[in-house]
Amino acid sequence: MHIHCFYNMVFVHFIYFIVLLCFTGSRASKEDLELPQFDFHTIATATDNFSSRNKLGEGGLGPVYKAKLTQEESIAVKRLSKHSGQGVEEFKNEVTMIANLQHRNLVKLLGCCIEGKERMLIYEYMPNKSLDFFIFDQNRKVVLSWQKRFDIIMGLARGLLYLHQDSRVRIIHRDLKSSNILLDDELMNPKISDFGIARIFRNNQSEAKTKRVIGTYGYLSPEYAIDGKFSVKSDVFSFGVILLEIISGRKNRGFHHPDHYHSLLGHFEVLRCIQVGLSCVQKLPKDRPEMSSVLPMLSNEGVALPQPKEPGFFTERSSVDIDTIIGEGRSHTGTTFTITMVEAR
């Protein structure tokens, strides 16, 4: 199927069919979305029957493949793992979350494939892979000049501001990390991806709490990791970690320094971007700035920067300490804790 012909297809009420075909027991909302569908044969052919040579990586839902619709046109296919215990719910969540979002710094969802037990999401293809592919590699990091790193920081900030403030609903991503920031082909513009565990905040809701904490150690805010509380400030914390990783080229998790035992968050001194990052990763949510304040702080040298307080996870904890925290979270909140280990693609 040629992509241009595909775009001219008559749109169907995709979410409605998901409700009927996939998600027994749930009801369609009044905001059912229209999303084009690909057939399984087209995707299987385009991925060379899901060949390992075309595998781009492994996400929370399952593997992601590069697919060539034509010689010039490629897409990315996220295939739901048949062994994923929570995959169907996360699949539904990702579709309903981003199908109507339009922003240059969010990855674009092009369609889906639902046939039999197959569940796949079709995205625009990002040939430069993810941010961690560059910033943590000694050879590839030289491609990113300071100006390019700053452009990536600004693009990420704009995309996050859109989710928190400018989209039709307020969206908390909950799993921001360098491997979820994809880079496009020409200017390496950043695009936020992987909305499988994102949540919508409606009306005047400012904070929520969950007994099931899911995320990536090193990017989780203290209040979310320990108490299951999340808000826009949880995403701000993760943004601050990514900002510091972009500047330093070092991972927050596993950072070591010969002169002290601080984590990456406790290592930096005050410069503009570093100070903004440290402001975002402050321990208490009330001390972190809104994204509407972060953008001016980054782009306008005339804006006074607040002196950041102690960051969350300022001191690197041993594995014993981490187990203690998780154990305390379970005993007091009933939290189950799922941690994703980050590896460069």
From TrEMBL:
The signal peptide here is none
Q: Which GO terms describe its molecular function?
A: ATP binding; protein serine/threonine kinase activity
Annotated SUPFAM superfamilies = Protein kinase-like (PK-like) (SSF56112)
Q: List membrane-spanning regions.
A: 6-23
Q: What is its EC number?
A: 2.7.11.1
The protein's annotated catalytic reaction(s) are: L-seryl-[protein] + ATP = O-phospho-L-seryl-[protein] + ADP + H(+); L-threonyl-[protein] + ATP = O-phospho-L-threonyl-[protein] + ADP + H(+)
A Pfam family hit: DUF3403
Source superkingdom: Eukaryota
Cellular component aspect of the GO annotation: plasma membrane
Q: What keywords does the record list, in alphabetical order?
A: ATP-binding, Disulfide bond, Glycoprotein, Kinase, Membrane, Nucleotide-binding, Serine/threonine-protein kinase, Signal, Transferase, Transmembrane, Transmembrane helix
Domain Protein kinase residues, every copy: 50-303
State what protein this is by name.
non-specific serine/threonine protein kinase
Q: Name the source organism.
A: Rosa chinensis
